[in-house]
Amino acid sequence: MAKKNSRNAIIIMVDQMKATASHLYSRHGIRTPGLERLAKMGVRYENATTPHPLCVPARAAMWTAKTPHNTECRVNQTPIPKNVPHAARWWKQAGYQLALLGKNHCFAESSDYELFDVWCEIEHYGFRDKLAHYGFKKDAPDAKSPKGMDWVESEEKVIAAHAVRRNMPPPKGGASTFAVTEFEDRHYSTGLLSNQADAFLRGNREQPYTLWLSLPDPHVPYETPKHFFEEARAQNIEMPPPGPIPGDDLPVRNRILSQLMRCPDEYTENLKDIVTAYHANVLHIDKLVNRLLDTLEETNQLDNTILVFCSDHGDFAGEHQMVAKGGVLYDCLVRIPMIVAAPNLFPQNRIISSPVSLMDIVPTIFQLQGIALPDDLDGQPMVPCPDATEQEFGFALYGAGGPAFTMEQLDSMDFSFGHTALFETVKFREPEGDRSMIRNANWKLVHDPMGDLDELYDLQADPYEHQNLANDPAHAVTRNKLMAELANWRHWDKVTN
Fold it and tell me: Which of 97, 262, 347, 459 has the fewest beta carbons under 10 Å from its own?
């Protein structure tokens, strides 16, 4: 059993929030006083990345502290396989109470579900029914019946609020659908989970706990309360520069994705409204963070709780004139917000630029809780101290060698069904290949060993990654250095795993 005074842990994970959605990371981001408050309490990591730009592989990577190719969770249809070691099992063995509030999207086995003492699951469209898609079995736990605590809000009103999302028409071209509605905050997923978390924290928490507070927002389709939309619009968020239409200097996957998802009317008010709705959801999340910190203070838990804020992956949110997500490795999709606060264990108000990964969260919490780390993890405890040695490079690897289509085939498809079928292929056929990325604060290299074009970006001069320098002779030395580092890492990874 865990000691009574063992540190609690709360992982606040949001869905599809890029780092630069917050003003903490970019002048183009929305002001987030709640996240700023949390960052002052701990460490903000400037260069945190996800090992995969899709939900299930990213979440599985966090819970296992392993890369997607080592867990075989490489698509949204492959949740954590049966008997694969993961943090929920380790925390349970250490005597911690476990709770999930919100979106799951990585656990599908009944044996994993049974590890959690509290399980209140809600998805983008409301309470989750039994799912047969995304690799979740028909006999998976029915999340409409919560375990360990009741829903604190009327199920009818929550269902009514989410019916808007369920009934949204499919997007046309690259423009995602969005809705501005006037339901009460508490009936949206973020507001509901805010109240649910408050009830959990105010309950009798004699046993040390780990809470995964997993918010479905700001994932598409974007639905937001009207007052958050108006607040976001009042900030007059600057739209990212449109950038060029991808040409022959980019991989086929990038070009196909752009042709399928690029918003048809360049930077119309509609696109700005879509991006505003996205940031409005970030505002709602920020309000939850602020409230959670208030509750921890009121219940005298703040000094004994490890807090992590992160996202599973990012969103175009206007960059490259696209919204939503896709199987490429632009920063807007792989660079995520990451904040860790641990009173008296981590420094306060510290910014660290060394690369870290979503896979590092569990090892970091374990180290702070005094739980022994398994030997074969890909993730490592994050650097918390000013005098610590900061690593130069961070790595990401995921299966995405490219779609089984050519640009010529795409150009010949003059009917919507063909484009739709191709889009689904691009989106979901991720296991093809072994795409990898190496990145630090200044440079990024994306390599495809299957033979498609590489990408090289100067992140300081070109933060939106509009100019691929991979074949520019002036940058051959930089590219070769990064390729050597990546090759060494890939060799080490194969040897150790």
Answer: 347
Is the alpha carbon torsion for 272, 276, 277, 282 positive or negative? positive
Task: Provide the residue count of the chain.
Answer: 497
Report the C-alpha gap between 396 and 165 in whole angstroms. Answer: 33
List the alpha helices (DSSP H) in 267-412: 269-298, 331-334, 361-369, 407-412
Do 279 and 404 lie in one domain? The reply is no
User: In angstroms, rounded to a whole number, what is the distance separating the alpha carbons of residues 44 and 244?
Assistant: 32
Beta bridge partners of 122: 127
Domain count along the chain: 2
On whether the CB atoms of residues 98 and 92 are closer than 8 A, the answer is: yes
Residue 386 resides in a domain:
yes
Domain range holding 367? 8-391
Closest by CA to 100, choosing from 146, 55, 35, 144, is 146
The CATH number of the domain holding residue 368 is: 3.40.720.10
* Strands (DSSP E) found in 182-277: 209-214, 222-225
pLDDT of residue 264: 67
- Answer yes or no: do 332 and 416 share one domain: no
Residues 24 and 80 occupy one common structural domain: yes
Position 2 in a domain: no
- Cα–Cα distance, 379 to 50 (Å, whole number): 11
- pTM of the predicted structure, to 2 decimals: 0.91
Q: CB under 8 Å, gap of 24 or more: what pairs does 128-132 form?
A: 128/104
- Distance between CA atoms of 46 and 416, rounded to whole angstroms? 41
- In the block, tokens 């049966």 appear at 82
Count CB atoms within 10 A of the CB of residue 474.
7
Residue partners of 416: CB distance under 8 A and separation at least 6: none
Q: Which residue has the tokens 């898609």?
A: 133
> Tokens at residue 72, please?
């075989």
d(CA 29, CA 278): 11
Q: Which two tokens stand for residue 291?
A: 């409230």
Q: Do both 109 and 146 map to the same domain?
A: yes
Domain co-membership, 231 together with 303 = yes
For each successive 10 residues of the chain (497 residues), what is the average pLDDT?
78 98 94 98 94 90 90 81 91 95 91 93 78 47 72 89 84 71 94 97 87 95 94 93 88 81 70 92 98 96 96 94 86 96 92 91 96 90 61 61 47 51 50 72 86 90 97 96 85 54
Last residue of a domain, one of 391, 410, 437: 391
Task: Give the pLDDT of residue 375.
Answer: 87
- Pairing mode of beta strands 305-311, 126-127: unpaired
Write the DSSP symbol of residue 387: T
- The number of helix segments (H) and strand segments (E) in the chain equals 15, 18
Confidence at residue 219, expressed as pLDDT on a 0 to 100 scale: 92
Boundary of a domain, candidates 341, 361, 391: 391
Query: CA–CA separation, 60 vs 73, rounded Å?
Result: 7
Largest CA distance in the chain: 66
